[in-house]
Amino acid sequence: MSGRKQFDISAALDQAMRVFWQRGYADASLDALGSATGLGRGSLYGAFGNKDALFGKCLDRYSSIYGAQNEQALAAHPGDPVRAVEAFFDVILGRIADPSVPVGCLIAQSAAQSLTLKEENSAQVRGLLDTQRQRVRAALADSSADSHTLDELAMFVVAVNQSLAVLSRAGASDAELRSVARLACTTVADTLARAASEDVTQS
């Protein structure tokens, strides 16, 4: 058919996403991206625009896959915020342990390289982190803790999630990562329990 693309754009985007995920933005050369996708520079530019535009599309792709999984986990236990956070970390650790994908997290990798990103991409990374924080915050909402405490806990959970990605790239074992996640869940549970106790005392 005239004008039809001779390659699968979705498959090429997935391969490019893996290159950025594994190497980071700065070290994801056009040669590496072309080799992974099977596309020459002209085809890459024609399909996705420049490197920054391709990177932005890869961030969107990553978020659509893994952000959706995180959201499902956090929403799966209404009324039980601690279990929701446990399910969230289970999904995170499952992805980290999956040998079919690069180690770590594309968002964490990109956040660490924010100074090398164009402002538009850097803002996109910040936005994805904020979306994650909002999702965690929503899962924590069904508790008696005050808004400030819940805001702090949501940021704490996101911070631990990012640290898990960094530690995994540094070679931390699954057992070590699960220990970190377990302690984080204990912190969330203890903080919410303390807030509930204070609420009862004041009423």
From TrEMBL:
<dbReference type="InterPro" id="IPR036271">
    <property type="entry name" value="Tet_transcr_reg_TetR-rel_C_sf"/>
</dbReference>
<keyword id="KW-0238">DNA-binding</keyword>
<dbReference type="Pfam" id="PF21993">
    <property type="entry name" value="TetR_C_13_2"/>
</dbReference>
<feature type="domain" description="HTH tetR-type">
    <location>
        <begin position="6"/>
        <end position="66"/>
    </location>
</feature>
<dbReference type="Pfam" id="PF00440">
    <property type="entry name" value="TetR_N"/>
</dbReference>
<dbReference type="InterPro" id="IPR001647">
    <property type="entry name" value="HTH_TetR"/>
</dbReference>
<keyword id="KW-0804">Transcription</keyword>
<dbReference type="InterPro" id="IPR023772">
    <property type="entry name" value="DNA-bd_HTH_TetR-type_CS"/>
</dbReference>
<feature type="DNA-binding region" description="H-T-H motif">
    <location>
        <begin position="29"/>
        <end position="48"/>
    </location>
</feature>
<dbReference type="InterPro" id="IPR054156">
    <property type="entry name" value="YxaF_TetR_C"/>
</dbReference>
<dbReference type="InterPro" id="IPR009057">
    <property type="entry name" value="Homeodomain-like_sf"/>
</dbReference>
<keyword id="KW-0805">Transcription regulation</keyword>
<protein>
    <submittedName>
        <fullName>AcrR family transcriptional regulator</fullName>
    </submittedName>
</protein>
<dbReference type="GO" id="GO:0003677">
    <property type="term" value="F:DNA binding"/>
</dbReference>
